[in-house]
Design brief:
Blueprint lengths: L14 H9 L2 E4 L3 E7 L6 E5 L8 H18 L6 E7 L8 H21 L1
Parallel strand pairs: 3-4
Antiparallel strand pairs: 1-2, 2-4
Helix pairs in contact: 2-3
Amino acid sequence: MRRARLQKRARLLKASEFNRVFDKAVRSSDQYFTVLARQNETGFPRLGLAISKKRAKLAVTRNRLKRIIRESFRQKQLEICCADYVVLAGHKSSTANNSRLIQSLEQHWQKLNKLCAKS
């Protein structure tokens, strides 16, 4: 069985791509994550991660957060609007359990999907 993964084209890789989202973004925030979104013209959603050492001190924790975010995005990418998303870790993200983090991301995807559809 082949493992599913997030394709390279579905990722934000360049600083200019991140800066474009940071300049004029729609925001969804809670204690676990802040998710920024901005419409794009690529025809598919893209994800960027900004998990800082300030929020998740251990590399193990940062990597766990990244895996959870990427997997949640991969599962929802066909349902959400074509936008660029940047996810930042919140102050309680490093201590929360996986199911709570997944639930938080689900709420962010739904909220931002509605906000992006309006604009």
